[in-house]
Amino acid sequence: MANNPHVIILGAGPAGLSAASQLVRRTKFQVTVLERNGWVGGNAASFDLAGMRVDYGSHRLHPSCDPNILADIRAMLGDDLLDRPRHGRIRLRGRWIHFPLKPIDLALRLPPGFTLGVATDMAVRVVPRSDDLGGSETFASVMEKGLGHTICRDFYFPYARKLWGLDPGELSAVQARRRVSGGSLAKIVRKVLSEMSGRKTQGSGRFFYPLSGFGGISEAYYMDALDKRANFYLNAVAESLHIGEEGGFSVYYEREGRHHTLQADHVWSTIPINVLAGMMQPSPPAEVIDAAGNIDFRAMLLVYLVLDMGKFSEYDAHYFPEETIKISRLSEPKNYSGVRQPEDRTVLCAELPCSPDSPEWSKSDEELGDLVRDSLATAGIPLDATVLQVYVRRLRYAYPIYTRGYEESFDKLDEWIGHIPHLLTFGRQGLFAHDNTHHAIYMAYCAVDCFNEDGVFDREGWGRYRKIFETHVVED
Ligand SMILES: Cc1cc2nc3c(=O)[nH]c(=O)nc-3n(C[C@H](O)[C@H](O)[C@H](O)COP(=O)(O)OP(=O)(O)OC[C@H]3O[C@@H](n4cnc5c(N)ncnc54)[C@H](O)[C@@H]3O)c2cc1C
């Protein structure tokens, strides 16, 4: 191994960028990052549209972020890291409920049938209906057991069908256990009560947000890593990864139509784990290739509408569980930062989860603009403004899909990759984890922490950190 080992990081999303920044800060390693886009930030990036900064759908930094990471982000962003109140709403059976939930609002606005249903669910011990599933637990059975039938029927189940494109009974129980915050009625009640005056927990109902858009977090890590001489190749698509006979790797990538190779002592991948498996040379055994084929991600269309009005609504986000409304969420970027300029325009961003094989994926911008317009009209918030522009971005890898039984395929893939010395996979795509940004950054910090002073990677330590990652619960 060289004196100054070379680490190549695949992907410049929050995980790859924070790994690069921490490696150049805490080690003497050479660091090179390959990113397929011409910009950094991955799914958590921001960009300019019609003179405004917009994100890839609704993004906020949750106060549950690890304190050391939050301190680093604060140190990099200073006063540009805003502390903002959450102000969203959910459409439930035709009514709007404030999100995060507020006791008074719940009392006054919840549909009576819904309230009665939840009360009955609380009184009666709910027996999960798993008889048709051979007795094994699923997202549906765990959620019904914890939250009761009413909340599941009216909120979680239709929302799950939209987000993952599967019936709740076809989703793994992992989705419910590890990926839904407030997974029991008792937790929800505690959360609502904590909203009452004097009982709020720190950070409750608030979020952090960079003045320059959520992507400001990634950009700060990028600038920090660049400043400390990490190398970045943007528009560089990693194509294959050859394991050398004496350790180390040859990384082949394509950039602007040309093919290049780099030598690495370590490769840290934050790209989708199934894509990584497909680019390994020598190729994995057939059963690992099969396992990679059983892992899939939900895609998402982000439809941005530029309106000729200063503000569409006071809300940062509107959530739409109902299946009659195609989009899952609508956000108004201006309301995240509180910036009012430009006074005469605003942008809305509609999230439309879908499959890349679906007709939606290949619709034109205008058709998608019409779809959003129809969705808003159905939701009772029609667009009463001129749409100056429709702009669409496509995320191929938005959400991991935890189909029942996916664990076996993931474990096979993970185990095979785990046996290749000096290769590490992490981040939301790399560990197939439905995680928040601060979780992806936490993984990167932990990876760097596993290098000892002699540049030896502590695999056992990484194994311990992996157990911690399994406790992460995603927040909306
Ligand atoms: C709609 C939506 C809303 C979200 N809201 C929130 C929120 O409010 N708060 C929050 O904390 N998190 C939120 N998230 C999650 C957040 O976006 C992710 O946690 C975060 O982006 C994960 O970072 P990552 O670096 O692990 O992966 P990514 O951001 O996906 O980065 C992976 C990078 O790898 C690159 N790449 C892929 N293949 C190759 C290749 N072959 N060669 C080179 N580069 C490659 C990609 O271009 C990408 O830049 C949201 C996600 C979505 C989809």
Describe this structure in words.
This protein has 476 residues and is of the alpha/beta class. It has three domains: 6-83 and 211-294 and 403-469, FAD/NAD(P)-binding domain (3-Layer(bba) Sandwich), CATH 3.50.50; 101-194, protoporphyrinogen ix oxidase, domain 3 (Orthogonal Bundle), CATH 1.10.3110; 297-400, Protoporphyrinogen oxidase, mitochondrial, domain 2 (Polyamine Oxidase, Chain A, domain 2, Alpha-Beta Complex), CATH 3.90.660. It is built from 17 helices and 20 strands. The chain has a seven-stranded mixed β-sheet with strand order 7-6-16-17-18-15-19. Strands 9-2-1-13-20 form a five-stranded parallel β-sheet. Helix 1 (14-26) links the parallel strand 1 and strand 2 (30-34). Helix 1 (14-26) packs parallel to helix 9, helix 4 packs across helix 6 (149-164) and helix 11 crosses helix 14. The longest helix is centred in the first third of the chain and has 16 residues, at 149-164. It is globular and about 70 Å long. It starts with 5 loop residues before the first strand and ends in a 7-residue tail after the last helix. The model has no long low-confidence stretch (mean pLDDT 92). Residues 10-16, 34-37, 42-44, 57-60, 62, 237-238, 270-271, 300, 351, 395, 397-398, 427-429, 435-438, 440 line the site of flavin-adenine dinucleotide.
